[in-house]
């Protein structure tokens, strides 16, 4: 008999934890997972999936308006926030059930309570039970970091945005990352008066500057008030319930709701990692090697808690690689090169590979091709919005090292194009491909 109750004990049943659990179990390991809230993690429960559903819902505002120019007669239009909210939350319930079923079908035992580490091979459940395991995997993700400013108790994080009682007439968004930009676009389209405040001039760090500038222009034209160099100082609540947001110079900004989206922090506080000598790095992230192993040989970590690349597909890849390496006799490392990403803003932007700035710094001699066009979808719209696609090419080899685009359906188009960048195809390969006409995607093979 094994000296341990389980071969693997996973703390956290998000995307990375669930993948690692079921694959390890499929390899024959005896696996248990502890989750203190709901199975599915940030992405499924309070992140990208419900947020994307809100994006879809918000797009009907412009689609219904544009429909009239396509000959449709639209009657009186109104929007019911609780109806959309509740539909989204019901789908979260559905996905929670599917993820739970996945664990059950693979024979993974579940403990729906908090677990903490008590040693290199032991964990303790909130109920008091102590459990031993040969290996422990930490997959607890990140949590919104709320700044310590007066009145912060009146603000909400992205977690609570899916549960608002009513659509705020005035929304102030604090932050300049993808979460801030996405929620600003959603609620602006749904009819809220949105003000976005960022402490610096830089929005969406890591994305191509030309695309970000285009998004800012379009967002402001759509009515979002963007205030840069406006550090968040405090919130005051008036007697009538109005929130007065102080950010930078000028008068306070009145709001009915304040979303703080200034970053996320690895969820390691109070996890007991010090009892096993697990080293933490920047911002409380767990330091790991190429196989996800921590400074303790029996404890591993995957996903956002390691603060490497905070994307759900990356956490899934890491969970798969961990399980294959330890239990499948198939040592695997995750390749972090050329990971595509997107911002589901209005309109969305997406990118893969090096931005123009990064390519110049890394390669020196490059060529940049671009297409600045009005998407056919917008021809009958009353919005003078233009799409922008950029291709960054290594001038020495001709290899396409970066693709970046903003416009309708940009993320859907980029997913396929990212395969070409990952495969190392050249500009000549793109040029040799016949265009699919009429489409926005054809711009990728028509740049000269």
Structural commentary:
The protein has 448 residues and is α/β, with parallel strands linked by helices. It has three domains: 202 residues, 3-Layer(bba) Sandwich (FAD/NAD(P)-binding domain); 111 residues, FAD/NAD(P)-binding domain; 99 residues, 2-Layer Sandwich (Enolase-like, domain 1). Helix content is 29%, strand content 23%. Strands 1, 2, 3, 4, 5, 6 and 16 form a seven-stranded mixed sheet that branches. A five-stranded antiparallel sheet has the order 17-18-21-20-19, sandwiched between helices. It has a four-stranded parallel sheet with strand order 10-9-8-14. A hairpin with a 5-residue loop joins β11 and β12. The termini are far apart. The model has no long low-confidence stretch (mean pLDDT 96).
Q: What share of the residues lie within helices?
A: 25-40%
Strand content: 15-25%
Question: What structural category characterises the helix and strand content?
Answer: alpha/beta
Parts with pLDDT < 50 across at least 5 consecutive residues: none
The CATH homologous superfamily name of the largest domain equals FAD/NAD(P)-binding domain
Largest sheet: 7 strands, mixed
> CATH class of the largest domain, please?
Alpha Beta
* Number of helices, where a helix is a run of at least 4 consecutive DSSP H or I residues: 10
Count up the domains: 3
What's the end-to-end separation, in Å? 68 Å
Mean pLDDT: 96
């Amino acid at each position: 008999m094994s000296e341990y109750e389980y071969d693997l004990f996973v703390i956290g049943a998000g995307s990375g934890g669930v993948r690692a659990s079921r694959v390890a179990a499929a390899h024959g390991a005896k696996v248990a997972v502890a989750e203190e809230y709901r199975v599915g993690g940030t992405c499924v429960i309070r992140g990208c999936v419900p947020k994307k559903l809100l994006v879809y819902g918000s797009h009907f505002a412009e689609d219904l308006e544009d429909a009239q120019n396509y000959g449709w007669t639209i009657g009186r239009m109104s929007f019911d926030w609780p109806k959309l909210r509740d539909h989204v939350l019901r789908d979260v319930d559905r996905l929670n059930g599917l993820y739970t079923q996945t664990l059950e079908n693979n024979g993974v035992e579940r403990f729906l309570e908090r677990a903490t580490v008590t040693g290199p091979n032991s964990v303790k459940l909130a109920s008091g039970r102590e459990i031993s395991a040969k290996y422990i995997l930490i997959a607890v993700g990140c949590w919104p970091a709320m700044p310590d400013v007066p009145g912060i108790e009146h603000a909400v994080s992205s977690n609570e945005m899916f549960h608002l009682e009513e659509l705020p007439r005035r929304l102030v968004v604090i932050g300049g990352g993808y979460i801030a930009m996405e929620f600003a676009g959603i609620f602006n389209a749904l009819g809220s008066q949105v003000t976005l405040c960022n402490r610096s001039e830089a929005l969406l760090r890591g994305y191509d500057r030309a695309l970000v500038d285009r998004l800012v222009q379009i967002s402001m034209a759509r009515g979002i008030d963007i205030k840069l160099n406006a550090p968040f100082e405090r919130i005051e609540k008036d007697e009538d319930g109005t929130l007065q947001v102080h950010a930078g110079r000028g008068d306070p900004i009145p709001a009915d709701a304040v979303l703080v989206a200034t970053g996320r922090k690895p969820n390691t506080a109070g996890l007991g990692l010090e009892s096993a000598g697990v080293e933490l790095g920047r911002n409380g992230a767990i330091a790991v090697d190429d196989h996800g192993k921590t400074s303790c040989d029996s404890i591993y970590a995957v996903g956002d808690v390691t603060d490497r690349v905070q994307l759900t597909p990356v956490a899934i890849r890491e969970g798969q690689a961990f399980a294959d390496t330890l239990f499948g006799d198939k040592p695997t490392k995750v390749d972090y090169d050329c990971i595509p990403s997107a911002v589901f803003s209005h309109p969305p932007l997406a990118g893969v590979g090096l931005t123009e700035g990064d390519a110049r710094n890394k390669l020196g001699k490059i060529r940049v091709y671009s297409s600045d066009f009005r998407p056919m979808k917008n021809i009958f719209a009353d919005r003078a919005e233009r799409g922008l696609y950029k291709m960054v090419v290594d001038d020495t080899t001709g290899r396409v090292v970066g693709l970046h685009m903003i416009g309708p359906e940009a993320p859907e188009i980029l997913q396929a194009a990212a395969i070409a960048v990952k495969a190392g195809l050249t500009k000549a390969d793109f040029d040799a491909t016949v265009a699919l006409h009429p489409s926005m995607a054809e711009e990728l093979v028509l740049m000269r």
